[in-house]
Amino acid sequence: MSRIHTDILISGGGVAGLAAACAFGTAGFDVICVDPAPVITDANADGADLRSTAFLQPARNTLRDAGIWAHLERYAAPLQIMRLADAGGVENEIRKLADFDASEISDEPFGWNLPNWLLRREMLNRIEALENVRFIPQTALRRVTTRNDHALVNLDNGDQVSARLLIGADGRNSFVREALGINAQTKRYGQKALVFVVKHSQPHDDISTEIHRSGGPFTTVPMPDLDGAHYSSIVWMETGANASALAALNDAEFTAAAQDRSCDVLGKLTLASRRAIWPIITQQADHLIGQRSALIAEAAHVIPPIGAQGLNMSLADIETLLTLCMDHRDTFGSAEMLDQYQSIRHPDMARRIKGVDMLNRASMTDHDTLKSLRLKGLQALHHVTPLRQTLMKTGLGTD
């Protein structure tokens, strides 16, 4: 067994964990990042994460400061307009459109969309260029012991790591959170999300569309054109039974169902990837900190994929924690510093979780009266200019 000393130990090598490793490494901290899964950086490989992530402006800035954005920008599809569509009538057709155009509040798009498998590949390339960052795949935490001045972590490869700060970025079933004795409150919606990529006949024009109908939204997110063809990533939220039935269809049947549910906003659809299915929950950790430890990303919060909030909250966690560590260079990881992280991030997290929970429940409804209220609420949000602009700023995290 070898004993390794480092400034930061990150548990979790997903997009958030790797982004944290790049951010802290670029800022000059010695970083070790471990993950129990193998490295998968090919969209066609078994286990590849086919979801995409829309990075809003503040999250893009964090990636730029971490030296990652220069590697990602050429692959990113801009999101200029966030379009909400209500299709809650008798027929599967759009009754009302509401466009939220970034040009009203900014000279830049709301954000940029990238596939998760590619994010992982480019972040690992960035880590390779950082001499003070080490990524160890297929390695899990086995034991966490914290002291006043360090966290001592035993890995399943036999190594023991002593870190001034342990960061849990290890997902909704976080080992770090459990080891710290932190509870998490979970809400289940009886929903699942089908995730896939389509080629389509009409250009997306940098518009991301959320089509709201009973069961959950059907969201189209622009991806870059390839060889003259138009592509978008789709997140289709449905009740669990319906989602499972859709997942069981053959490709032709599934494409026909997706075509109908899309209300033809992208023209003719052609399935361009395999399909993945994910359970939809809301989850929030009771606390974000322990002795010499902090939780970020899905170890701290999980929300439905609405409004591009999930990973952007995670990048806000990273930005806040990094800023505090830099402000406390000599004492980072101290109780005082971690208390500040808790006081900054937990209230914002709770507010955004509540907002997305309300939006999801409104989208799911099959009650005629509530569907009518949803339509009227959409109209009100769109037609009142100050309210519309405030909503856009809030979504960006610049309010």
Automatic annotation (TrEMBL):
Record-annotated FAD-binding domain positions: 6-349
Pfam family, one: FAD_binding_3
Gene3D superfamilies: FAD/NAD(P)-binding domain (3.50.50.60)
Pathway(s) this gene product operates in, as recorded in its UniProt entry: Cofactor biosynthesis; ubiquinone biosynthesis
GO annotation, biological process: ubiquinone biosynthetic process
Co-factor(s): FAD
Annotated InterPro entries: FAD-bd (IPR002938), FAD/NAD-bd_sf (IPR036188), UbiH/COQ6 (IPR010971), UbiH/COQ6_monooxygenase (IPR051205)
GO molecular function list: FAD binding; monooxygenase activity; oxidoreductase activity, acting on paired donors, with incorporation or reduction of molecular oxygen
Similarity comment text for this entry: Belongs to the UbiH/COQ6 family.
Protein name: 2-octaprenyl-6-methoxyphenyl hydroxylase
Species of provenance: Paramylibacter kogurei
